[in-house]
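Pasting two entries for a bug report.
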Amino acid sequence: MADLKRMTGEMCKHRVINSGLVLFEGGSYLDIAFDFNGHKQQARQFRLIFCSPSLDPVAAETMHNMLGSDLYTLSVRVVSFYDRMQEDQNPDDIFKRPEGASSLPLKALHYLYQTLMDIMFTIAKNEKIHLLYFVAENKQLNTLYTRYIRKFAEQRNLTCVINGACYAIRTPGCPA
């Protein structure tokens, strides 16, 4: 498990559960287990999903407005993630926090998002993905994602496009 004790002062760990990306029709996913600060009640398992844009027809118009012809000429993946406990509790609404799951402290949230971003960009590099596109599922996430995306893009000298709750980031492998 990777850890972040030196940065947070608390022990946060994660490990990738699958031996690689698991393929399904139109996409792939990776399951990641997180242990936040050694508290069993804060241990979570998330699924990080990469789908082709065609699997997300609701966002098609927004994607086209944000990305233009890049949507058709570059490798684009819609990225999402969810808590696997919610999949068991309510598979029709997987993006909500599972019932009974505690809120994560700010440092644990930072570790979660930073780790997910690092994994997304590693997969983008390995799979030759040029653009990552995702949507914040609610207003609270929109505020949080906007800060993280801007900071992440600035730190890595990446271009990002933000349109409301929709985000697109050009990966380092994206042609100019």
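Entry 2 (this is the one that rendered wrong in the viewer):
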Amino acid sequence: MKKLLLSVALFAGAMLALTGCGGTDTVETIDDRPVIHFDAGSIISSARDHQIKMLTLSSIPRDDVNVPGAVEELQGMQADNDMYLAELEGLQHKVSAADEYKDLVVEYLEAENAYIDQTIENVHAGSISLPSRFSMDTLYSRTNAKVSDFRYEPK
């Protein structure tokens, strides 16, 4: 019994000594992802909201494309995109992968704006067909899939 008590006391003393002298340091993790200087998460979140609204608009059964408020909603989406495009214009990064991602985001925003323009034109022309979403949806998927590959730090 004495040996067990002595062993426990020695073990506890050794642990206290190691803890007191810094023998059990903590490990600081380093985020080595490339830095981007724009809030891609906000842009992707806004794009997701736009996607949902556009899908809702395209799923409404109608004989007349002039859904009340649709053009105004589309113009609001376009204004959001224009704000993001202005923010991204001329923005440079130290790492080429970050610039490539920025270019992908710009490409998506421009594709969404083109889709919105075509949709608005169709509404004004009285056409009930909507433009193809394939290119825009593909760019959205690629942009969304890569957002976690980068770390946002404001400039």
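Dev reply: Rendering is fixed now. As a check, the viewer should reflect this: The longest strand covers residues 35-36.
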